[in-house]
Amino acid sequence: MNLSGKVALVTGSSKGLGRAIVLRLAEQGADVVINYSRDAAAAEEVQKAAEAHGVKALVHAADVSQVDGIVDLYDAAIAAFGKVDIVVANAGMEKVNIPVTDVTEEDFDLLFRVNTKGPYFVLREAARRIADGGRIITISSNTTTVPQLGVGLYGTSKVATGYLVKVLAMELGPRRVTVNTVVPGPIDGAGIFTDPANDEYKRSLIEMVPIGRLGTTEDVAGVTAFLAGDDAGLITGQQLVCDGGMH
Question: CA-CA distance, 155 to 143, in Å (whole number)?
């Protein structure tokens, strides 16, 4: 796949899944916009790694749970590159192993601000600004389709965007803009699985995966890059599950 001449904006891309997605898109020739909220050094490292592929890379700090920050992010991308062709709404917050009875109002407000409000307005701005023939991709979680103990709040906060994708695919179809969701399972080496304290939980999840392993950031980056390319031009309004058969 060749993404030369394309501009890709990836939220939450200073580490983890977002980092892997940025580098895969850069490897395929896309100029990239790297978004972060706190870790400037990590974002600058991603910038250098992306530019090593011979593309241009912009780093922009923005809290994408705030609408003003989202608008500023798109303003910066278009000021730097003149357009946006690919948007990946990746930024999110993982909070699992919390029974419904233990969820506080503060927990609820935080996760819905980051995982529901944030992607909604990232997609709103994408719909307003993306070039015709563009690609909009959200990163969800298979907790939206595979009920598990302790993920009631997290899974619920990720559900709404999947519905929005289907509606937006219809609204943007006349402009040949595709809108899809990648639905990963648990990702080894990312999120809560960077903490050895969660190794037992990880082992219990592996037992649920027919393929016998958790996913990697590269697995998800590959699926995302496919949806960003020309070969996926007739795929829209879909949820592409990448979880080793857990669903």
Answer: 5
**Which are the catalytic amino acids?**
140-141, 154, 158
Per domain, the residue ranges of the chain are 7-242
- CATH code of the region 7-242: 3.40.50.720
Query: How does pLDDT run along the chain (247 residues), one tens digit per residue?
Result: 699 999 999 999 999 999 999 999 999 999 999 999 999 999 999 999 999 999 999 999 999 999 999 999 999 999 999 999 999 999 999 888 899 999 999 999 999 999 999 999 999 999 999 999 999 999 999 989 888 889 999 999 999 999 999 999 999 999 999 999 999 988 887 777 777 877 887 888 888 889 999 999 999 999 999 999 999 999 999 999 999 998 7
